[in-house]
Amino acid sequence: MGCLGNFLWFVFGGALSGLSWCLAGCLWCITIVGIPVGTQCFKLAGLSFFPFGKEIRYGGGTVSFLLNILWLLFSGLALAIEHAVLGALLCVTIIGIPFGLQHFKLAQLALMPFGAEVY
Predict the structure, then answer these.
(1) Every domain of the chain and the residues it spans
(2) For residue 13, what pLDDT is reported?
(3) Which of 7, 28, 33, 96 has the largest count of CB atoms under 10 Å?
(4) Alpha carbon of 101 to those of 3, 29, 31, 75, 79: distances in Å?
(5) Taking the alpha carbons of 97, 115, 16, 20 in that order, is the dihedral positive or negative?
(6) Three-state DSSP state, 54
(7) pLDDT exceeds 80 at position 1
(8) Residue 71: partners with Cβ closer than 8 Å, 6 or more residues away
(9) What pTM does this model have?
(10) Maximum Cα interatomic distance, the chain, rounded to a whole number of Å
């Protein structure tokens, strides 16, 4: 399902969610202080473009926790709501359930992106 799922995901909505992450990354990169956050957004945009076959493991420490709080206040909540709403809409049909689950995975990632590793 990995290759076919990623292709269908990209065509039917993954491009939009990936562009949302890219927009957040561009906004964070406007300031010099926000560049590390912006680069993390661009890494996660790649995951948002093609999420099938990838797993996320959460970890981190104090710095990740503080960055996650700043992220949540400025960008994370909007992205998490976007992914949660799209996931709920896709889970209405049986065919859309795998895609909805990927949106829920990305919604959790949108709340806590720092300290997360993608495998």
Answers:
(1) 2-118
(2) 81
(3) 28
(4) 17, 30, 34, 21, 15
(5) positive
(6) coil
(7) no
(8) 37, 113, 114
(9) 0.87
(10) 45
Residue 118's H or E segment, with its range, is strand 116-118
Could you give the CA distance from residue 38 to residue 70 in angstroms, rounded to a whole number? 13
Report DSSP letters for 55-111, one per residue: -EEE---HHHHHHHHHHIIIIIHHHHHHHHHHHHHHTTSTTTHHHHHHHHHHHHHHH
Residues 6+ apart with CB under 8 A from 27: 34, 38, 75
What type of residue is 23?
Answer: L
Question: Long-range contacts: 6-13, Cβ < 8 Å, 24+?
Answer: 6/50, 6/51, 6/52, 6/53, 8/99, 9/50, 9/51, 9/52, 9/99, 9/102, 10/49, 10/50, 12/99, 13/86, 13/99
Six token digits for residue 32: 């010099």
pLDDT tens digits, one per residue of 4-40? 989 989 988 889 899 999 999 999 999 888 898 899 8
**What are 71's two structure tokens?**
């992220």
Rounded Cα–Cα distance for residues 39 and 70 (Å): 15
Written as one letter, the residue type at 48 is S
